Amino acid sequence: MIAQTIQLALAPVFVLVAIGNIMNLLSTRLGRIVDRSRVLQERYNHTEGSEHDEVVREIRLLDRRIATIGRAVLLMVLSALSIGCTVTALFLDGFLHADMQRVAAIGFIVAIALMMVALWLFLLETRMASAHLRVPEEFLERERTL
């Protein structure tokens, strides 16, 4: 019975590993965004005119990106906690013969749903970043054939 419970718990544990990897990616992106915002905050008082406006625009974008990544991290943590509840329910079911299958299934569904929303937020954040970070046309030299 314990071997079967461990087998049942493997799938959620693999999802937990994936969540950990995604959270590592999110925290790395968040760190880079925060570093960039610190650079811009240092430049803020030393700019004026259109250069200042560009700094403010980028700070605003970075603020939105930080908030989006923060929400994604929160959802991933909640997803991981839900996976933990799922595994706990599976083991309680195996040890105590309590009818916890439905609880485990609901926990797993909730975890996957939270992870999907977090991944959607990650997609939105990467789209925000890529929309802002276009290569200026003059560097592309489209008139030249290479």
What does this structure look like?
- The protein contains four helices and no strands.
- The protein is mainly α and about 150 residues long.
- It is elongated.
- The chain starts with a helix and ends in a 6-residue tail after the last helix.
Features:
mainly alpha; 87% helix; 0% strand; 146 residues; 4 helices
Specify Rg, calculated over alpha carbons. Answer: 22 Å
Number of strands: 0
Total count of helical runs of at least 4 residues: 4
Helix content percent band: over 70%
State the order of secondary-structure elements, H for helix, E for strand. Answer: HHHH
Describe the largest sheet: none
Question: What structural class do helix, strand and pairing data support?
Answer: mainly alpha
Pick out the low-confidence regions.
Answer: none
Q: What is the percentage of strand-forming residues? A: under 5%
Judging from the principal axes of the Cα atoms, what is the shape? elongated
Mean pLDDT rating: 92
**How many distinct folded domains?**
1
Distance between the termini: 66 Å
Write a brief structural summary:
The protein is an all-alpha fold and 146 residues long. The protein is built from four helices and no strands.
Fold topology:
Elements (H helix, E strand, L loop, with lengths): L1 H43 L4 H48 L4 H32 L4 H4 L6
